[in-house]
Amino acid sequence: MTENLVRERFAPTGTVPQSERRRGRPILEVSGLTVDYLTERGPVRSCNNVDLTLHEGEIVGVAGESGSGKSTLITALTRLQRPPAVTVGGSITYHSPDSGTVELTTLSDAALRRLRWNEIAIVLQSAMDCLNPVMRLGDQFADALRQHNRGMGQQAVKARVAELLEMVGVPANRSRSYPHELSGGMRQRSLIALALACQPRIVVMDEPTTAVDVVMQRQILAQLLSLQEQLGFAVVFVTHDLSLLVQLADRIAIMYAGRIVEEASAQQIYNDPLHPYARGLRDAFPSLHAPLTELSGIGGNPPDLRHPPSGCPFNPRCSHRFDRCSSELPILSPIGDRQVACHLHDVSPAGVPAEPSGRSV
Ligand SMILES: Nc1ncnc2c1ncn2[C@@H]1O[C@H](COP(=O)(O)OP(=O)(O)OP(=O)(O)O)[C@@H](O)[C@H]1O
């Protein structure tokens, strides 16, 4: 297994390898974030007591199966969630260079609008849903730029639009095109450029390359890494594709049933995930470097979040479970420089399995 994985696959020559990247101060601190969908059949807790810290210039990935709560987490942390989703607990603290420390959960809509795009930008899955289909690309960029910098003259706007498009490899003359006249890759690149228009400090991305083929995905992610190195913004990147994240992220949070079950460096998740679910997710993707082996999936299905199992939510699917797993919820706790929520890795006296399985996880 390679010591330094990852960036080599996406990173263009000259970018800083993952292990040498500097981690700045905390810029976004999520603590105890809890989100319910209030449905007629009762609340569905899809984000449950989530803690997550993003540092300046860092890429944090969030991975998990479909339905694990990734989108719920990031829509809540950008305050983009819509009913029936309601944030019922926790805090999201943004450390702004201009406004000091800001609590996003209680911020007024007007203040939130000022923050979005200028400091926190969002790139969603489908560019077609995010771009206005009846407006030329350049006009959409100009609108965004003027909304956030009213004094900007026409020439300056034009030059900035050209600069932004070229930055992501879209020819500047495409600013006259409508979204449907662009390829899927160009649209997705344009969306990334639009997100970067006001030089945000944080870019939140929800599966931004799902709609394009793998070759285009690779190009877009290489470009994203290169821009991130140049401009220094921090990224929260959500995907179900763990193999992609280990190539991109500095740290990865693995979500299951609305909770973070392991949070560790990309290398640790790739080489030695501790939580059985994180390991199962890792083993479900082919390795880039190891010899070909048969892929193993994770048996069973994610729980119904209206009626989650007692104890560890993963216990019905876990081949390493022991008595405690079905009666007591494991808490996310530090193990060295990572965090894991699993009784197998509980080092307290109470954490010793009653019947050691003999298997190492
Ligand atoms: N509108 C809704 N009403 C009720 N429950 C919902 C709603 N949207 C999502 N959920 C619940 O929240 C859970 C988490 O959904 P979410 O979309 O956040 O997961 P995800 O990990 O982003 O999945 P995917 O990768 O498929 O987008 C789902 O399992 C579902 O039970």
Task: Please describe what this structure looks like.
The protein has 361 residues and is of the alpha/beta class. The protein has 2 domains: 24-119 and 201-289 and 297-344, P-loop containing nucleotide triphosphate hydrolases (Rossmann fold, 3-Layer(aba) Sandwich), CATH 3.40.50; 126-199, no CATH class. Helix content is 28%, strand content 23%. The protein has 11 helices and 12 strands. It has helices at residues 7-10, 70-77, 109-115, 127-130, 137-148, 154-167, 184-195, 214-231, 242-248, 266-271, 276-283; strands at residues 26-39, 42-55, 59-63, 85-96, 100-103, 120-123, 202-206, 234-239, 251-256, 259-265, 333-335, 338-340. The strands form 2 sheets. It has an 8-stranded mixed beta sheet with strand order 6-7-8-3-9-10-12-11, with helices on both faces. Helix 5 packs across helix 6 (154-167) and helix 7 (184-195) runs parallel beside helix 8. The chain starts with 6 loop residues before the first helix and ends in a 21-residue tail after the last strand. The model is unreliable at 1-7, 11-17 and 354-361 (pLDDT under 50). Residues 28-282 form the ABC transporter domain. Residues 1-22 are annotated as: Disordered. GO terms for molecular function: ATP binding; ATP hydrolysis activity. This is ABC transporter ATP-binding protein. Residues 1-10 have a biased composition (Basic and acidic residues).
